[in-house]
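FAQ
Q: What does a multi-component entry look like?
A: The components come first, one per line:
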Amino acid sequence: MSSSDLIEIVIASGKGGVGKSTIAASLAIILRNSGYRVIAVDADAEAPNLHLVLGINRWDRVLEYREGRIGFIRDDKCIHCGYCYDSCAFSAIEEKSGRYVINPWICEGCYTCSFVCPVKAISFKYNVLAGYIKIAYNTPYKFPLVSSELKPGRPNSGKLVTEAKNLGRTISGGKGLIIVDAAAGIGCQVIASLAGSHLALLVAEPTPASFSDLKRIHKLTKHFGIPSALIINMYNINNDLVGRIIEYARKENIELLGLLPYDYSVPKSMAMKKPVIHAYPSSEIAKSIIEVCNKLLTLLKDWENWRLKHIPEKIEPFIPVIIKPKELG
Amino acid sequence: MKPLSIKIAFTTDKGGLDDRIVERFGRARTFTIVEVDEKGNILSINIIENPGSRATSGAGIKAVQKLVDMGIDIVVGPNPGPNAYMALIQSGIRLYTLSGQSVKEVLNKLLRDIFK
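Then the predicted structure of the entire assembly, as tokens:
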């Protein structure tokens, strides 16, 4: 599908707690009210909470997400040689009153134990329930929400996020805006959120931690060749750093969409489970969010031109560091 | 002696010449593989499943491994993720990054560029 029919906007920050979900919720509402077809996707499968910010507690559909495998030892075959215990790189095999058992919370399903077992006493359970994809078609804000939710202890999954995003695309019918609320960090889930998207909306607060993480997440967006725009949240908590972040954005060709103030209406609205622009429409922050959104709307109207001007020039290479689990000690 | 041929892989969804190049690399559902001879004539078109699309983690690496196993020379798709990118560099497979157009369009342009 051509990118001008469907634009996928990913809200990411690297650092957590800078206001991704708050901003995502309000942006989605304003964009929807401006006439765009909007689909919101919560891609923070480890800690999904966009539905809480939006106050959605009823789901129209809940799909099970199954993947991976967990080993188990068959007592009738086990000869207690302990090879599996010695070979497990994740120390997932435990000895309990003379029996070897696999701890399902730790098992990665790597097959090493079944490989070394001389009597083939280890079998695997496949397609373990690892999470859910939840869909609310009719929210009070007139756009659907697709939320991904990982079960605690299951492997960090880009696949779940990819499937949630694909579902969002299917619902959109290839038209409109997909607002993806990404997880914090720069790991598997965030990579899956960014892959195939068209615009990265980076959120930073003026703290050294957030600035450092902004640079890290921006490296990733450059790697994927995604143009970036920036929102600085809570700018008035540390005015000194704001200048340096703006300077960085200018140098790196990131469009600054605006500054949002620290405003006590935000935590109060979260407690009410209402997006801040609805809970406190005349607050300082609501006005600033609308300003930011107007800038985003201008950008979207001139999308093709803007994209060409802000697309990163070359791929940022990454050197992966490989650490074997045992080396971590 | 085996005649010279070039294998070009495209990241696709359903696969085939009429499909579009998808915006996912490691998690593209299929690769459409077109083999051409030294004059640019199409010898074969195959659609293979991408093992990365089913992987929980390490999707990019699994996808590149598959391409290496298939003896691919050129891959056309979106910008790959960090790990897939590193694997691609080491594999020696040439990467052309673009997405959205149909396989047929890009193939024709590629063949024109290579065999002009």
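Q: Is there any commentary attached?
A: Sometimes. For this entry: The mean pLDDT of chain A is 91.
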